[in-house]
Please model this.
Amino acid sequence: MILTENQEQLIASAAGGDDEAFQKLFEAYQTPIYNFIFRMLGCVEDAADATQEVFVKMYRRLTSLRNPKFFSTWLFSIAKNEAITMARRKKRKNQSSLDDDQNGSLSETLVTDEAAPDRQLMQNEFETEFQRILLELPEIYRMAFVLGVIEGHCYEEVAQIMNCTVGNVKSRVFRARQQISARLEKVYA
Amino acid sequence: MMDGQLSGRERAVVEAHLETCERCRALHANFIRLQRRMESDLARLQPPDYVAAGLKAQIARERERATRTAPASRHLPAVLRPSVALRTLLSWRPFRARRPFRAQRPVLAPRPAFFLRTAAVAAAFFIAMFSSIHLYRLVKTPPSHGPQIAETVVPVELEPIPFEGDIEGYLEQSAIVLTQISNSGALESTERPVFEEEKRLARKLLVESKLVSRQIENKRYSHLRPLIDELEPVLWDVANLEPQRDRESLSLLRETIDRRDVLLKVNLARSTSRPEIRF
Model:
């Protein structure tokens, strides 16, 4: 998707221990991976940690990649798993750090925490609202939307990353788009 | 349609529908507004610098750890590494009840045929098994030639025991003993033979005969083997001689020495150093 001409050669070199090739791959993919994870988690620190972990895993597993043509899909699959792991870890952490206040329900607290975007990086009001709405979506809708619409992957790639059919991807993107636009309409009505 | 992923025919169908359906047209308009807003207002974030720095440090740690605890199998071809073999085995269809990591292997990526994978696993298994057996045998039993001796048998010393005297001396003393026995016929009628000194000498020579036997394994003295073998029973007879009580045994011994020319052979062996002489 990003590297086309010498991607295979670059990947083969990186798998063989070429630091320069690995650095080029990192530079080419760090921004899309970081943005994808940030849109999934809504926190820059978590996104940075997860991004770093994704590339460490890439370093460890690059030799097991069978077909370099699918490098992008493979890397985003790692990122997807890392984002899910990070979200669950965060949820568990929040769960264990809850105090004895029984007034607020657990789900409300989690939604509030998860839906709090990193406001330092929000350039404008729209972005803040957009990220908040995005985090309120079901995870599979959010992932399909971020990968297919924001990151610009074709639906076949998204299906491979999410391990589902292209039809599923289409319907998830449609529902995500429908819910986001409806909620934004409410906000700006 | 929004993402430009429809074919020409599909796009025409959707556009025709939008012309007739007000609800879908409104939805489509909302989607277009959202798309434009996203394109204009959504920022592309750059990862902080510490991601690259942290990654570099972590990879350096990984490498250090890998070189410190590198398994011996890393020198093997990938197909022979236990980790690869195990991963191949676990990814085999019967063992893959669930596929939680399927997404990490692209669906469109060509997978090796089923029988190839099975053959690879079987080959890795048999190679590992036969290598283990071979290594075990190498470690357990040292290489040997000829028939094996039971481990409980204590092996004799491999190094020959050095003979303190020499073969020439052994032959000389044997010649003295045999000469005294041969000449005893003249004494027989006049005095009672004792032969104490000869008996003592014969016992000494018998003790030394084992050492002599080992020494004649040397090529230089190998021609003396028949003589030494022939000499030994004669020396035993001398050592056990009781001439006071059994005069007949003395005469029999004397006859044996004469008949077999033992004394002659010993003297001949002493007088010549030629190894070609055979008895």
About this structure: Chain B has a mean pLDDT of 73.
